């Protein structure tokens, strides 16, 4: 297998784009990535796209054919993958495999979601399709409800507090305030989070990631070709994916995501690295409790210690392990299919030393992305390194 | 890259399965494929699944996580791909790439669609998402309407007749009557087709494939490992995919599918073969005109000669090039995501000499599948050979 590098990245601002269509968003992100890689479209051999619910959100399936068409990339193969909120990360993994295998050289991986074209309740119902429709959603268990169950159990087992969860939101809003692409640009206080409206007890509005529009793109090439396009290639050291039960009721534990643990173990094995080697990590904080579980399940902190570590600032920029420098899903926004690709964009910027406005992790050499689908039925992890 | 073989196949009966859920159908096909390969689930390294519109048809996305869960395959990577009616073929291509690359050894590829849980108009609207929602469907151009435009233009340019199109349906119903898995089990006459209700002039009811439920699965392994599982491995000689514009209005020609031509050319190059080498081919006959265009665009007949060749029996079993021995989409049924995988199942049976009830192509050694998404924006082609 060949080594694979990211040679270009780009994204749209995340937010409520009333004036832009799905087509517009994907083109904007794609063109920025192509400009970043100094690459003409004619050089691209294949396209992978991650989007979750375009069928329900914009009435359109066959979504990568649409993107290839709109970007003038025909007749290259264009393949959509879907794994709920992990769609972007899984698309990145397919692109990685296509290049690693030698089947394709230059591959563009996009992620996008246009969520504000339908009423918010319809968007929430579409998102519910990421969990178990027959055994959960049909009975009323929406996503906030499922993560609220996990949060409550984490509080019971480990003494995690609502203030510790709020600290995740405070940190991620702070990071987002330094990211011009972020949905939210303002800082929040612990008090603001704690006083916000209850969505599903103990989760409050500021514990939840927003519904956003947006797109992100990365361009992959064999590492040996990468310097034809960029002086700062980012090598993908590992790409790992794992699955777990769709319904929470089938799981042995509510306080860990098995798919995260399996994917992280495989990724560290492939990269021949350990959690302590990671300089910056984007984790899947669809809810604040999700970030706390992620930093434990990946192995940055012992089980049960994630809340305390966050509240004590250990996941801030400049501290032990900077988590979600982009602002994460909570602060940067969560256009579902775009998120996994955006994570790779942010880590590429960090490893290239190009993260702006004070959020650069000094000397970052190795980074990681952690993208989760649904309530944890899919997890995909990538480990990346600034190429020598 | 490693050589890849199909070591097991299985499918459900296609039809209206009022008593079976999406879960039931995928499990049935998967278990049959595993039994065919004498394989325990614990040996499977990854799952790829093709399904088009589960979000709209059963309210469920994240569909391969559901399958992996229901089949007890966790925590292996489970990845859904979607390319409208080509979802199954594209899933097969991703599985092929995963094995060819050396990343995974044993990979199960499934395709499924449960279409009868919603009213037929909702299913038709969901299918419309395979074309261009903004530029076609929104203006009233459903799938039958788009293919009717192609049919009319083919009639104008090449003198193709409605009776020639009807001959496709007659042949495919005949073949389906020899396939116990087929949605339709009865033969039809030219007169029946010609007198059936007009759906979108010149296409009549019997020119159209039906809305079906069903699932199909194939299991892949490196060719060098294949005989551990089966005495009759089927080697995948080529896997090629191409894209075209989503909307018909953007195309130079209405009487050919460019994606088919590009994918076929690439597939023949990779396999080092020509159309005359193919002993049996499953093509994407969502409408009768689609089969006529396919046999021309692949290169079995000159452009414009497909209708005449069909009417003269050249695509029947035992004739020049047997097309759609399974009954095709028209006769065997079209559970959208399942179709591309079912094509591979049928070709595997043909190459293993196991096609039943009189539909076996004598001495078939090389076969081909041709799976189209939407009105031709995606095409994926596989060439297969009975392994020596």
Protein traits:
homodimer; 388 residues; alpha/beta; Peroxisomal Thiolase, Chain A, domain 1; 9-stranded mixed sheet; 11 strands; 37% helix
Describe the protein's architecture and organization:
2 copies of one chain form a homodimer. The first copy, chain A, folds into 2 domains: 4-119 and 212-234, Peroxisomal Thiolase, Chain A, domain 1 (3-Layer(aba) Sandwich), CATH 3.40.47.10; 139-209 and 237-386, 3-Layer(aba) Sandwich (Peroxisomal Thiolase, Chain A, domain 1). In chain A, helix 4 (87-100) crosses helix 14 and helix 7 (162-176) crosses helix 11 (288-298). With 388 residues, the first copy, chain A, is of the alpha/beta class. The model of chain A has no long low-confidence stretch (mean pLDDT 97). In chain A, a hairpin with a 2-residue loop joins strand 5 and strand 6. Chain A has 14 helices and 11 strands. Chain A has helices at residues 22-36, 54-57, 63-70, 87-100, 120-128, 143-158, 162-176, 190-195, 223-226, 258-271, 288-298, 306-311, 328-332, 336-352, and strands at 4-11, 46-50, 78-82, 107-113, 198-200, 203-204, 214-222, 234-243, 280-282, 366-373, 378-386. Strand 3 of chain A pairs antiparallel with strand 3 (78-82) of chain B.
The overall pLDDT of chain A, averaged over residues, is 97
**Terminal Cα separation of chain A, in Å?**
19 Å
CATH class of the largest domain in chain A: Alpha Beta
Estimated radius of gyration of chain A: 19 Å
Biggest interface and residues each: A-B, 66 and 66 residues
Overall helicity of chain A = 25-40%
Low-confidence stretches of chain A: none
Total strands of chain A: the figure is: 11
Shape of chain A: globular
How does the major sheet of chain A shape up?
A: 9 strands, mixed
Beta-strand portion of chain A reads 15-25%
**CATH fold topology of the largest domain in chain A:** Peroxisomal Thiolase, Chain A, domain 1
Number of domains of chain A: 2
At the fourth CATH level, what is the homologous superfamily of the largest domain in chain A?
A: Thiolase/Chalcone synthase
Order of helices and strands of chain A: EHEHHEHEHHHHEEEHEHEHHHHEE
Multimeric state: homodimer
* Discrete helix count of chain A: 14
- Across the major sheet of chain A, the strand order is 3-2-4-7-1-8-11-10-9
């Amino acid at each position: 297998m060949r080594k694979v590098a990211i040679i270009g990245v780009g994204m749209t601002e995340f937010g409520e784009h009333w004036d832009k269509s799905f087509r517009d968003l994907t083109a904007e992100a794609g063109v920025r990535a192509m400009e970043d890689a100094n690459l003409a479209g004619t050089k691209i051999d294949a396209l992978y796209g991650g989007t979750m619910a375009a069928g329900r959100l914009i009435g359109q399936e066959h979504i990568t054919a649409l993107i290839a068409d709109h970007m003038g990339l025909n007749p290259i193969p264009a393949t959509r993958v879907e794994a709920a909120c992990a769609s972007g990360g899984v698309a990145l993994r397919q692109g990685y495999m296509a290049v690693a295998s030698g089947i394709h050289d230059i591959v563009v991986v996009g992620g996008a979601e246009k969520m504000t074209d339908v009423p918010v309740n319809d968007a929430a119902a579409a998102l519910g399709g990421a969990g178990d429709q027959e055994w959960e959603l049909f009975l009323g268990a929406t996503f906030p409800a499922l993560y609220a169950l996990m949060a409550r159990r984490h509080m019971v087992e480990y003494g995690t507090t609502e203030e510790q969860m709020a600290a995740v939101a405070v940190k991620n809003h702070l990071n987002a305030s330094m990211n011009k692409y972020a949905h939210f640009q303002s800082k929040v206080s612990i008090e603001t989070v704690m006083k916000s409206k209850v969505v599903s007890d103990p989760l409050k509005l500021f514990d939840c990631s927003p519904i956003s529009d947006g797109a992100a793109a990365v361009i992959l090439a064999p590492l040996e070709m990468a310097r034809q396009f960029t002086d700062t290639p980012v090598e993908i050291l590992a790409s790992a994916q794992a699955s777990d039960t769709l319904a929470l009721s089938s799981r042995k534990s509510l306080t860990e995501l098995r798919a995260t643990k399996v994917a992280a173990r495989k990724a560290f094995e492939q990269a021949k690295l350990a959690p302590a080697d990671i300089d910056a990590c984007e984790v899947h904080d669809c809810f604040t409790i999700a970030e706390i579980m992620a930093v434990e399940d990946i192995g940055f902190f012992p089980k049960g210690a994630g809340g305390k570590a966050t509240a004590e600032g250990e996941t801030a920029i400049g501290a032990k392990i900077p988590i979600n420098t982009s602002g994460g899903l909570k602060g940067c926004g969560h256009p579902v299919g775009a998120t996994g690709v955006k994570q790779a964009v942010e880590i590429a910027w960090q490893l290239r030393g190009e993260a702006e406005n004070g959020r650069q992790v000094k000397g970052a050499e190795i980074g990681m992305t952690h993208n989760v689908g649904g309530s944890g039925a899919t997890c995909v992890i990538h480990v990346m390194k600034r190429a020598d």
